[in-house]
Every structure is written in structure tokens, then in C-alpha cells.
Amino acid sequence: MELIIKYFPDLTGRQKEQFAALYDLYADWNAKINVVSRKDFDQLYLRHVLHSLAIAKVCTFGDGARILDVGCGGGFPSVPLAILFPEACFTAADSIRKKITVVEGVAAGLGLTNLTPRCVRVETLTERFDYVVSRAVTAMPEFVGWIWNRLEKGQKGSLPNGILYLKGGDLAEELALTGKRWHVYDIPRFFGEEFFETKKVVYTPR
Ligand SMILES: C[S@@+](CC[C@H](N)C(=O)[O-])C[C@H]1O[C@@H](n2cnc3c(N)ncnc32)[C@H](O)[C@@H]1O
């Protein structure tokens, strides 16, 4: 929790309470339905919450911006981002019902009214979004194919509408196969080397 305050010193009292409440909520839900690996659960704030919030160091989301989290699993990156941007509207989509049950439980426990969990395969969505965020779902060419036509052109945040994806490792070749131009941001720039050494946020505008 101190890590979140260190890198996001302007949190409101409510946001601090919500971030603090995350740990027990995930601990309770994870005991019933395993969505966060038990071996790194004690690193929840570092590996999941702060990692998700790297997206906020690249792009801030404006009031009313519609953001889709593709393959949210237990709610990463959308749950931490929805706490940080209470005026933006998040849809957390996953095709596995039990994962969405956890996101529903955590969102209700936090009083997170700007996040809508949906059990759906994202390829079947028909509405449009201003941004897509995601982590660890599939290879980039396939990912872009799933959601490119769901993105609205325009600008509803500090960067033009587009995709923000959390990636690890060497990705130049994989990104080139998408046929899009990507901006790559090293996460250690924001949070130092610890754990994040090879991790990046990749962004392409619509
Ligand atoms: C490795 S998990 C990552 C979960 C979360 N993003 C995280 O980083 O903790 C990948 C998730 O993507 C979901 N997923 C894969 N393909 C999907 C699709 N076509 N539509 C919706 N969800 C999908 C899976 O059910 C799984 O929960």
C-alpha cells in the first residue's frame, strides 16, 4: 500500500481507503476462487496493483472516457485504474464466469460504480470504446484483430484514443506483425528496477 502512495501521492482519502481495502477483498475472494497466484499474493500491491497503474503513468483518462479491459481475469489492470480514475467508465471483460464473479465481488466491496464486469468473449462485443487496456492475454497480432474495430477515434484522455497493453520481454518482432506503430514505455522509468526490469507499456493510437 505504501508503494501506491509513494508513486501516486495525490490520491484522495477515498482512493486511499479503496486501495487499502483491496488486499482483504482479494484475499477473501482468492480463497474461494483462485485468480491471483498464491505464490505472489503477498506481492499483490507490487505485481498487480502498481503494475496495472503503470498505464496511468503513460495516459490519464478523462471524464466519461470509455475503457475496455480485455481479458481482465481477477480485475487487472481495470480495478486499480477504476479507483484512480473515478470519472472514467470501465468495462472489465473476461470469458470465464468465475473470474467475473471475483471482479463483481471486489467492485461491490469497493463501491466501484464506474466499473462494469462482463462475462463475454471480447470478439463478440459490438459497442465502441475510447481506450483498450490489457495485460497478459494473447499475442499482439491476434489481440489487435479482436478489438481494433471496437475503438472510437478521438481523444478522451492525455493521449489519443488507442490501445495500452502491459508487456514483458522483447517484443519488437511481435509488435511489427500487427502493422501498427507502437510507442514503448519502460516501466522502470516510472517505478525503478525492482521487479519491473523488463516490463513495458506499449501504446498505439487508433
Ligand atoms: C493470463 S490471464 C490475465 C488476466 C489479467 N489480465 C491479469 O493480468 O491478471 C488471461 C485472461 O484472458 C481471458 N481471455 C482470453 N481470451 C479471451 C477472450 N477472447 N475474451 C475474453 N477474455 C479472454 C482469460 O479467460 C484469462 O482470464
- Can you count the beta strands? 7
Low-confidence stretches: none
CATH topology: Rossmann fold
Task: State mean pLDDT (0 to 100 scale).
Answer: 95
Which small-molecule ligands are present, each listed once?
A: S-adenosylmethionine
Helices, by number, come to: 8
Secondary-structure element series: HHHEHEHEEHEHEHE
Structure description:
The chain has 206 residues and is α/β, with parallel strands linked by helices. The chain has a single domain (2-205), classed as Rossmann fold, CATH 3.40.50.150. Helix content is 38%, strand content 19%. The chain is built from eight helices and seven strands; from the N terminus they run αααβαβαββαβαβαβ. The protein has helices spanning 2-7, 13-32, 44-58, 78-84, 97-110, 140-147, 172-176, 188-191; strands spanning 66-70, 89-94, 115-119, 131-135, 162-168, 183-186, 199-205. It has a seven-stranded mixed sheet with strand order 3-2-1-4-5-7-6. Helix 4 links the parallel strand 1 and strand 2. Helix 2 runs antiparallel to helix 5 and helix 3 (44-58) packs across helix 4 (78-84). The radius of gyration is 16 Å and the shape is globular. The chain starts with a helix and ends with a strand. The relative contact order is 0.15. The model has no long low-confidence stretch (mean pLDDT 95). Bound molecules: S-adenosylmethionine. The site of S-adenosylmethionine has 16 residues, from strand 2.
